[in-house]
Automatic annotation (TrEMBL):
The lineage of its organism: Bacteria, Bacillati, Bacillota, Bacilli, Bacillales. One of its GO terms (molecular function) is enoyl-CoA hydratase activity. This is FAS1-like dehydratase domain-containing protein. InterPro entries: FAS1-like_DH_region, HadA-like, HotDog_dom_sf. Residues 8-138 form the FAS1-like dehydratase domain. GO terms for biological process: fatty acid beta-oxidation. It comes from the Bacteria. Pfam families: FAS1_DH_region.
Length: 147
């Protein structure tokens, strides 16, 4: 019989997506960020950027449009979404990401802690690399499967 710990080390299929200036603009408008560096390349360059930069949480856009659905991830982990809690999320940034960049991502289960009561705590890590294979960001999330 499979246990939650059996998923430690599980690696999901890789995916790729292009960073589009229009999607950066949409996210900035959606969250009410009026900083012109997210909508105007000239303003971004005046502020020292190479092009329009992404907002801090923009990789969620790449995940949503290019990656597997959350439902698919949970199916692969054999987690009933009715018993799932999102524990935490963190991002670690290594290099700038700009409109036009091609991002390649892959998610791996880096840890699973099973509790005696049937609860399991999963840590997933997604590494994002740009078109030059440069690591630009890592996202970590903790998921809690309730008994």
């Amino acid at each position: 019989m499979a246990t939650p710990e059996d998923k430690k080390g599980y690696t999901f299929a890789p995916y790729s997506g292009r960073v589009e200036a229009g999607k950066i603009r949409e996210l900035a408008l959606a969250i009410g960020d009026e900083n012109p560096i997210y909508t105007d390349e000239t303003k971004a360059k005046e502020e020292g950027f190479d092009a329009i930069p992404i907002l801090p949480s923009f990789m969620e856009v790449i995940d949503m449009w290019a990656g597997p659905s959350f439902e698919d991830l949970m199916e692969q982990l054999e987690i009933d979404m009715k018993k799932l809690l999102h524990g935490e999320q963190e991002y670690e940034y290594f290099a700038p990401v700009y409109a036009g960049d091609m991002i390649h991502a892959q998610t791996k289960v880096t840890d699973v802690k099973a509790k005696r009561n049937g609860m399991a705590i999963y840590t997933l890590e997604t590494v994002y690399r740009n078109q030059n294979n440069e690591k630009v960001m890592t996202a970590r999330q903790v998921l809690v499967k309730m008994p």
